[in-house]
Backbone:
């Protein structure tokens, strides 16, 4: 079931989530169900695997994304329709991948980022400086592939030590959930903490909870801010009781290929994504 827009006459408590999806194509339906079930207002995604120009839409959410021009990687932010926000550029990143928006918490502007850093790329301080630039309070979440015992990792890597030193020098705070955030495909591998939140000048308490509701080698993490966000009153959604069923059926039959060739998992993911897009487009075309 698609997440419904949250309505508010004034303000409501903001709930975020972050998730390393290990590819979102083919996972739209489970992601929509997760967002609705947990009342997520803003979802920060890493490793989206979306290609430039590839369609990706979720009902009742605005999607801001940064696609890697080559295979893999990519970040995105899904914002529930009705939340006041706008996209913020993150220029000049040499290694780090990031998508950013600006919204309001307790009537104060806040910069929110979804980030990802491949384990094969170096952590560069200048990239972090760009993310925290602008003079606004910042909340950044994602997978930096950085391990440190301070956020309960099994060991401290060089990258984890660099991030720990940066947080100390830049007056940042690092938050992690109580349980590990990885769910390795290899059953002999040990779960660890790789997904966490970094904040600066955000004077609100936040609570993190790992959640095993989605299919990936990373668990999703719910982020409760316990503070208020400004909401628009979103427009009424379509009334599906008025959907022209005959027109809906005709559109589906015209747009869905018969017996598509599915040779591998990528073909299956593409087919599922196309099917979801066709349903959304057909509903829009068949509902006044």
Residues:
């Amino acid at each position: 079931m698609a997440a419904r827009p949250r309505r508010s006459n004034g303000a409501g408590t903001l709930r975020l989530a972050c998730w390393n999806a290990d590819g979102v194509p083919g996972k739209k339906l489970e992601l929509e169900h997760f967002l609705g079930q947990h009342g997520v207002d803003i979802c920060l995604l890493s490793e989206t695997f979306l290609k430039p120009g590839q369609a990706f839409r979720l009902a009742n959410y605005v999607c801001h994304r940064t696609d890697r021009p080559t295979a893999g990687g990519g970040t995105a932010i899904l914002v529930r329709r009705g939340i006041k926000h706008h996209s913020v550029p993150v220029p000049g990143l040499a290694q780090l991948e990031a998508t950013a928006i600006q919204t309001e918490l307790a009537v104060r502007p806040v910069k929110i980022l979804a980030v990802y850093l491949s384990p094969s790329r170096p952590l560069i301080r200048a990239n972090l400086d760009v993310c925290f630039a602008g003079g606004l309070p910042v909340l950044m979440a994602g997978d930096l592939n950085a391990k440190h015992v301070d956020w309960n990792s099994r060991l401290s890597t060089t990258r984890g030590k660099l991030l720990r030193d940066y947080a100390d020098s830049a007056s940042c705070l690092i938050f992690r959930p109580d349980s590990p955030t990885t769910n390795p495909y290899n059953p002999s591998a040990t779960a660890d903490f790789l997904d966490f939140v970094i904040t600066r000048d955000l004077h609100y308490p936040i609570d993190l909870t790992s959640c095993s509701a989605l299919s990936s080698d990373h668990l999703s993490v719910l982020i409760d801010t316990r503070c208020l966000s400004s909401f628009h009153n979103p427009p009424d959604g379509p009334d599906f009781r008025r959907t022209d069923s005959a027109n809906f059926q005709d559109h589906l039959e015209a747009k869905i290929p018969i017996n598509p060739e599915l040779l591998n998992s990528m073909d299956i993911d593409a087919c599922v994504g196309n099917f979801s897009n066709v349903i959304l487009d057909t509903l829009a075309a068949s509902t006044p």
